[in-house]
What we know:
Layout: H1 6-27, H2 34-47, E1 51-55, H3 58-68, E2 75-80, H4 89-93, E3 97-101, H5 112-125, E4 129-136, H6 145-155, E5 158-162, E6 170-171, E7 174-175, E8 182-186, E9 200-204, H7 207-216, H8 240-272, E10 285-286, E11 292-295, H9 299-311, H10 341-349, E12 350-353, H11 361-374
Parallel strand pairs: 2-3, 2-4, 4-5, 5-8
Antiparallel strand pairs: 1-9, 6-7, 6-10, 8-9, 11-12
Helix pairs in contact: 1-8, 2-8, 8-11, 9-11
The chain binds pyridoxal-5'-phosphate (PLP).
Amino acid sequence: MEFIDLKAQYLALKDEINANLQAVLDSAQFIGGPYVTELEKRLAAFVGRRHCVTCANGTDALQAAFMLAGVGSGDAVFCPDVTFISSTEPAKMLGAVSVFCDIRPDTYCLDPEGLERQIKAVAEEGRYVPKVVVAVDILGNPCDYDTLIPICEKYGLALIEDAAQSFGASYKGQRAGSFGQIAITSFFPAKPLGCYGDGGAVFTDDAGAAERLRSLFVHGKGPGGKYDNVRIGMNSRLDALQAAVLLPKLRALADYELNARQIVAKRYHAAFEGKLTTPFVEEGSISAWAQYALLAKDPQQRERILAHLREKKIPSMVYYPKPQHALPVFQGEPVYGETFKYADDYCSRTFSLPMHPYLTAADQQAVIDAVLEVV
Ligand SMILES: *Cc1c(COP(=O)(O)O)cnc(C)c1O
């Protein structure tokens, strides 16, 4: 059994993927070209944004988003305490500080109250300028945008949606990737829409921002092309081969994969409700179910469950074993007396089970049985 079964997905889409890859090889156009252009058009249409600009990975997409927002030395970038390091890592590289905020105990996303506490604390201290909020749709579950957006507006902060884990999800009828001035996603193989290597994309409705992104990703190229550099940029593009893989995968995600993930999640939910803490999706939200994460009763019970799964050769993961504020690299960041009560508790009890659109009912039952044997 696989945690995320990329082989089963490849078998289902093999003819189309192979034909596309062959076409790129025959064309010998490996950077840019019709597959990349077509993919960007379809991604933008799917998400409901005017522009999509692809790049080499989700971390680069975030770096470009921070550069567009003008993030630099002396700025504070706010993000939830439970996320992957990429959510603020590029901002740190640009000279900003990462200010972590506690999560909601139900959705595990950025807690609007925790965010506001931290914004006020930073503003009051006066050492850093509150600049950007990175809202992470954690594990595929969209943030509470109706509450987060007014907070960003109130304090004049730019909102960046980190939709690396939530491609395909939606919030009140709007797709993940459509929130904030800028949104990003990742096509790392294990994400809900993954390629066969690294890839990423930025979404915006602002034509000027899209043009600056196209410049940033090609060494700050100017109107005269890549040898007419007008700003310091990056070297970050999505390969034509990856675009050729992503086109059929995007179609499959929209046609049936997203739906298949809901069915798998419902089965887990029915099996574990009342026995473990099951993931909560807000009314009006649809999760992309990048992960199906349960909370054990306590860290000891989690250890027993994980050991039993290992014995049964059933894969499991912990997203994430440590909150951001506890990472060695962030020990020098400002903390403003925040307790991170919910983030610490979440990380001490969370574990994730196999979750992908090709999980059979029989395999899923084996996972469920193994977990319930311990619980
Ligand atoms: C995976 C991930 C990223 C970074 O994407 P890469 O393509 O791996 O660089 C950013 N944010 C979150 C929340 C992620 O899970």
